[in-house]
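Weekly sync notes, structure subgroup
Attendees: PM, AL, DS (notes)

Item 1: joint prediction request from the bench team. They want all two components modeled as one assembly rather than separately. Inputs as received:
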Amino acid sequence: MPAIKEEFEKRHRSILGDDYENFARILKRFLPTSFRINTLKVDRDEMLKRFEGYGWKINQVPFYKDGVIFEGRKPLVLGNTIEHFLGYIYIQETASMIPPVVLDPQEDEVILDMAAAPGSKTTQIAQMMNNNGAIIANEKILPRLSSLRTNIQRCGITNAVITWMDGKAFREKGLKFDKILLDAPCTGTGAIMKSPKTLKTWSVDASKISSSIQKQLLQSAVECLKEDGTLVYSTCSLEPEENEENIDWAIRKLGVKVEKIKIEGFNTRSGITSWNGNELDSQVSNCIRIYPQDNNSEGFFVSKLKKV
Amino acid sequence: MGLLNSKERRRLSETIKDIYGSSDFLSNFGILKTSNRDRLWLVAKKIFEVDMQKLRVQSAGLYFGRFDNGMLRLSIEGAQLIGKTAKKNIVEISKDDVWHYMRGFNIKPIEKINTKNNSYVLVRHDKDILGIAKLVNDELENVLPKSRKLISLTKENNLNTEVD
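Output from the run, pasted for the record:
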């Protein structure tokens, strides 16, 4: 694993205090493997029986009934199993299942997933909608479209349209959505356990560049949202520039309200309300931070915004 | 891309019933057809409420299959949908052959089935419909798309572990 940069340590020590040591320690560990049972294709209980027959030791993800997590190290390459081949399961990190749960999609809604590839959350949303309603699964980067397409197909999804657009362009289209998921492109510092090279590539400047793109995407998303619609903004970054500062900006510039989030059985922390000497809007504390050391999962930031 | 009209839908339903003896499930969907290769896509009806003209659409709904020399060549998902109620043209394969099938090899069915040579059949192991194959001289010719063969799947699996 690459060394932790001084700047990275300094800022996360300032947020975490003594808990920083636990954070730095867990970054060197492997993530437990989790996956989702795709109830669009199979019955959950039947699948659980099948796994039991294989001798798999698994537990349910506490906040999402179709999420499953291996106890200890996984016994096999899940991607090589018949269940994966047939689209009965989808390999997905536990924390990554949270944004769709917060979005709470309903069967008659029209939903935009603004940065959808590789499709983990799109396919989860489709599953939660029981393949009803409509999802626009958008991706800007062409090479990422093939994984999105394959995953949507493998999961048997009929209620999604794949679009290839810059998310920023949606605001010019005049379309309005009931709900929007903006799982924004980010520096990925919450996913270091999965992708240690992030420690090398991350810098304050990289977070600032990300933040600028994220704000533009946020603005586009808010403009495409119906009155009283819900926007879930999430990242797998733990940097305040890409998270709380963006939400503070959205409250002031875009007039959104931030709703409280409660994730059953999962440890979350409130969004921070000051950074770099600046006080942020108190509503930012309604956002959640998920730290790897709190649940042995990826790190994530999730916020639920209402257009008022 | 255009929507199948009611006559075309009926014809498709009849073809499916004829070949596989399965009951009609198509009424739940809009069915889109590409103009060039007769590819069929099943689309949830709510999607048609969205103004697609304004979007740069890459694909819509689930790829169901296409007509290949007049024969319906189903996708894995198309086969799974039909397989729920199919009564004929289903070939059972052994547990060992599941692995071979997923890797793209031709295989032998457990029992001979009585159907036309060079026709497509559903491939099943136990309760799982794995997809389709072409029955050629009592052997199942594997027609899995490259993107779904196990080697490529492993690659896709790596894509699943992208930062997400």
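Discussion: Chain A touches chain B through 57 residues (CB under 8 Å).
Action: AL to compare against the crosslinking data before next sync.
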